[in-house]
Description:
- This protein is mainly alpha-helical.
- It folds into four domains: 5-59, no CATH class; 70-158, no CATH class; 169-182 and 302-417, no CATH class; 188-286.
- 65% of the residues lie in helices and 2% in strands.
- The chain contains 19 helices and two strands.
- It has a two-stranded antiparallel sheet.
- The longest helix is centred in the first third of the chain and has 27 residues, at 11-37.
Amino acid sequence: MRLSLSTILDETRVGSVENVRRALQSAGDLVNNVTRNEGRSLPLIDVWQAAEDDFDRIKHNRGLPPPLSVTFADTRSWQNLNSHLLAFDPSWSVWLIWLRFRLMGITSDDIPSALWPKIERKIALMPEAFWQQSEKQICEEFAATIVDVVEENLELEANKEQNPAGLRFSIVEDIKIDVLEERTTETAEIRTTVSNEVVRNATRLLDLCDDNSASLLRSKIEDYLETLNGGVWTDEMLLVMRGDILRKEVIFQENWNEDSDIPPLKPSALQSLVQTVRLHNALVNSHTNLAKADRMLLSPEVTPENSNLSDLRTLLASAAKDRILSDRANVALQDIFLYSDHSPRSIVTSFSASNFIRLIFRYLWNYKKSFTVSGSAVMVASFGKWALANEVLLAKYFSMNPTMSIVVARVFEFLHRLPLL
């Protein structure tokens, strides 16, 4: 059944909502009557349905569509406004840029649409003295605010930390990119000890799930123990996923409130659950592949950039040919690229490639800003030649990320000006 505004509101508010619905529909009917009287034919509009559609978009974080079509930019009304403001003073162009975005959804190549709310908040919080200035001064400060916000976010995007869900890289002294060492305590003895302790505690927890308060938890523990398979698991991703379900159960129990339909666990079961989750975390951190799978699961990003594995393989082959990878990094990347596009591990491949590519652009971005950055012109030439040879693929790779696309475009603009490239 489709969720409506009425069904999600308290019964006491349904009457008020119905009054709003009637008022909205009356307004819609009035508009339709006026348009018919003017000889224009427009389809009847269910205003209440339109309001529900907008509410549904907001509820699912999709945002509302702009009030006007992009074609309004070609109308005489917009052209007149555009000409009038620019004739008054060219500094008014900043308001036209904002209006095009807010009214028609038309974005500017150098201002990512996601930054407009931040820009608007800064303007809205300006002190009264800001609005007491001349119109030209206000326009110029508005433009300066946009520049500041964009530059700040470009800096953050260019220097973004590498995602722990993939291989991470560093630049070593001999002008190569190397793999960072994994910090896990992986030994056969430790893994055996921890996994045995996890099995013991999870089994004990299962025995404590003997009342109604733990009926739902019991099935989760059974699934976890089945996947753990006595410490001889075969599916790493499924193990960390089912372990993460137990983590979420701890969070739920620790934040339980009386309005919940699910009763709280008895203290002994909750204590055993917490200990089981702690041991699961220790098991994950003692095993390299489990740690990688866990980082991928907990990563806030679903997929990095525009990750077409065929394109990524081309970029990797080019990096190996240009000898900008250490032997160890080359072998590690070749290994993870053996997975197919449909393999669950392909996301690890994508994050690893993202970390590798972003490291190069991070270095070039910071070198572009100041030639005093630690490094050398030799390294810039090495990385720059690789980037320029793959300019089309790299622009495509970041095409889904408007902010990083600007970073990449500026780096390429810088590289094209260098006399040695």
